[in-house]
Model the fold of this input.
Amino acid sequence: MEAINRIHHITAIVGDPNENLKFYRDVLGLRLIKQTVNFDDPGVYHLYFGDHNESPGTVITFFPWTNNNYGKKGSGQVGRIAFRVPKDSLNDWEKHLNAQNIQVEVTQLFGKNTLEFDDVHGLELAIVEGEAAADNNDILGFHGSVLLSGNPEGTKELLTGLMGLNELDRDDQNHHYETVGEEKHHIITSIPPQPAGRFGIGTVHHIAWSVPDMEVLKEWQSKLKKEGFGVTVVKDRNYFNSIYIGEKGNVVFEFATDGPGFDVDEDRESLGTALKLPKQYEHKRQEYETLLPKLDV
Ligand code: ZN
Done:
């Protein structure tokens, strides 16, 4: 089995879609690369953000709920999500966030200076410097994330076993791993487990791991089944294909193919500018366009 090289995307539940758009586009400088609906709950948007080239390992996606139903953070969820920024840009980021009245705390969560802050809906975020300098301060993609595992040893077994992550270090608070791909995404499981969380606004729904193609996805499906995990059928997500499992710490892991990509239904230049629906929902376009709040794109 090939090791997992990197995160494919992370998906969280947030509140008002325009507040979400303003935060990730205007404060963090990401690009809205897809407006679609939640394929499993199509009355809700599914908004995708990435860097300007929609590069792999940069995609964070949201289900913006307008029902005011806040979640409870806890085990069985992905915790704080960290973005990587160029070397020597952390001070500028701190100033930038302060200027937006965003409260920032500098910690050592990822084993080096980590700017911790929350998004407009209470989702826990962080910014960490990478090794390489750049001529601007733009977010380069994920640095990694915390997993609020209900069973850190069980989670470790999957991460360092089948998935091939390297363990970096551990103390009594955190175990620290990294993926083997060039992105070297950092994964932290927090110890000891917290009480169980409940999904809702301000919580992360799942983390998706990148697999190269459908053939490898099917290998993962049968391998995970053999290891005793409950594995879903392969789901067509239009821009990629996916399977889902609940890992031993109850965190939802998705395994997603790199292709076909976000340009299957719109030009790369116009990504994110219009509502895109998969075939099965196109006949209900008018209904969704009436129901969903207009986005200030
Ligand atoms: Zn997903």
In short: Residues 214-226 form the longest helix (13 residues). The first strand starts at residue 7 and ends at 14. The two ends are 42 Å apart (CA to CA). The helical segments are 17-27, 90-99, 152-160, 214-226, 279-282, 285-291.
